[in-house]
Amino acid sequence: MSDARDLQTTTTNTMGRGNWATSIGFILAATGSAIGLGNIWKFPYITGDYGGGAFVLVYLVCVLVVGLPLMLAELIIGRRTQQNPVGAFQKLHREGSPWQLVGWLGVASGFVILSYYSVVAGWALAYIFKAIAGFQGTAEAIQSEFGELVTSPGQSIFYHTIFMAICIGIVIGGIKRGIERWSKILMPALFAILLGLACYGLFSTEGGSKALAFLFKPDFSKLGAEGVLSALGHAFFTLSLGMGAMITYGSYMKRGSNLVRDAITISFLDTVVALVAGIAIFSMVFHFGMEPGQSVGLIFKTLPVLFKDIGPWISVPFFVLLTFAAVTSGISLLEVVVSYFVDRRGWSRIAATLVLGAGIYVLGIFSAVSAWSVPFSGKGFFDFFDDFSTNYMLPIGGLFTCLFIAWVMKDKDRADEFGSRGPLYKGLRFLLRYITPVAVLAVIVHQLGIVEKCFWLFIRLFVFFLNYAG
Ligand code: PFF
After folding, report:
1. If you take atom 9 of ligand 1, which residue's CA is the nearest one?
2. Which has the closest alpha carbon to 75: 232, 245, 234, 265?
3. How far is the CA of 110 from the centre of ligand 1 (A)?
4. Distance 51 CA to ligand 1 centre (A)
């Protein structure tokens, strides 16, 4: 019996899980998972914090060297096994294999990330209504509205509730009629709104050329080692890697489509959206002579001050865009968790989505109440969950996924899904064996602070070399 058929017959049921109806449906859903708050909220503000062009350049290299290979790896594992992340590792190795822990980590990451992601998405939702009502008053008054929203448990929980209800409603609909159908509606709308905003920024403000120079003219003096590591960490988050989201979405693919092309398309679209969002946002920021390095508040505090003059024609679409992006990512986070309970525990999709969605919702309340903090850590729940999941859970999940596909998965399973054994395949295997894990390990080592000084020295030398070469 062939290996492929071996895989089909092991343990868990793969029947009746659902499939993407069309390959464009899959691309839009996977791109929807990747494009989210990370692109429109996080990417512009960290780019601002690390000085612009040099950060963008390093981030692009990270997407190519770490993001793209890992995206392909996850899609290969998913499509090969037609399983949720836990089942996928067992099916490729053996029942009860310790590698299933990587899948478990992914399911747990989905649970934790969605709990606080939904709170930020709730803020985006709240700002649609604020934008419709119009931003009024002094700059201080407009900026303080964000603080009021975040510190008001009633408001934060209210919008968190609405956002979770939307995600639960879509995921209950299943793969074709829920996730695929809504991605096909929301993603084109998102592209259209974003294009409109970028055209406005480039052609109707005087900040367009400054924004382009800021984003694309590298100045390595402002980057530093910290910036390099942030770029790498962000590549993970923005491409939805390290927690099995792409394994899960890949598992609903039918055989036959070209995974390399799909992985390139998803990573490319995700990157373009982040850059175009950056152009739109920084054009407005420079037009009004504001500073680009505004950190977390760039979107919720700085932009509304500008929107007061620009008007609701731009501000309402902007927050609608942000909310759409968050919805298509939120459903992928929920789907990872749900798929495990449907595949392995035999729960019905409706029961799994309702029960797990409710659990995530309750956990999210801890992040929504900004006054509550994690005992003995001195950190609020929101910051704690964000730091822990983005800085540890995703990179660790990504590292082991990479080691698994590169060193443990059978060459035949890997090459069959890749579609060839040519130089491209050998290049990917080399990256996944030697380059990607080292880069990911660097992020983890940095987060843990181990041998940090040595590592920083290395990065400084590297940045010095780049400066020198440029
Ligand atoms: N990629 C999403 C964003 O950029 O906002 C966040 C995310 C979604 C991370 C799904 C991980 C994930 F599995």
Report:
1. 240
2. 245
3. 9
4. 24
Distance of alpha carbon 197 from alpha carbon 313, whole angstroms: 10
Q: What are phi and psi of 5, to 5 degrees?
A: -75, -30
Give pLDDT, residue 32: 96
45: confidence class by pLDDT, cuts 50, 70, 90: confident
Mean of pLDDT values over 54-71: 94
Does the pLDDT at position 386 exceed 50? yes
Q: Which of 116, 163, 240, 391 to mutate to test the pocket of ligand 1 (most atoms within 8 A of CB)?
A: 240
What are the pLDDT digits (tens) for 331-343? 999 999 999 999 9
* Rg of the chain (C-alpha set): 22
Q: What single string gives the DSSP state of each residue in 28-79?
A: HHHHHHHSSHIIIIIHHHHHHHTTSHHHHHHHHHHIIIIIHHHHHHHHHHHH
User: Which ligand 1 atom sits closest to the C-alpha of 326?
Assistant: 5
Q: Which atom of ligand 1 is nearest to the CA of 332?
A: 10
The pLDDT value recorded for residue 463 is 78
* Domain total in the chain: 1
| DSSP bridge pairs for 380 | 373
**Cα distance between residue 244 and residue 83, in whole Å:** 10
The Cα 107–Cα 302 span in angstroms is 35
Distance 24 CA to ligand 1 centre (A): 20
For residue range 440-459, what is the model confidence (pLDDT) as tens digits? 888 778 767 655 666 677 77
The answer to whether residues 243 and 9 touch, using CB atoms and an 8 Å cutoff, is no
The SS3 call for residue 292 is coil
Output the ligand 1 site: residues, CB below 6 A. Answer: 33-34, 36-39, 113, 237-238, 240, 243, 245, 329, 332-333
Global confidence as pTM: 0.89
Enclosing H/E stretch for 286: helix 259-287
Distance 107 CA to ligand 1 centre (A): 13
Overall average pLDDT of the 402-421 stretch: 93
Domain around 388? 2-467
Residue 451: its pLDDT value, please? Answer: 57
CATH of the domain at 61: 1.20.1740.10
Cα 204 to ligand 1 centroid, rounded to whole Å: 32
Which residue owns the Cα nearest ligand 1 atom 7?
240
Could you tell me the CA-to-CA distances from 115 to 119, 278, 389, 391 in Å, in that order? 7, 26, 11, 16
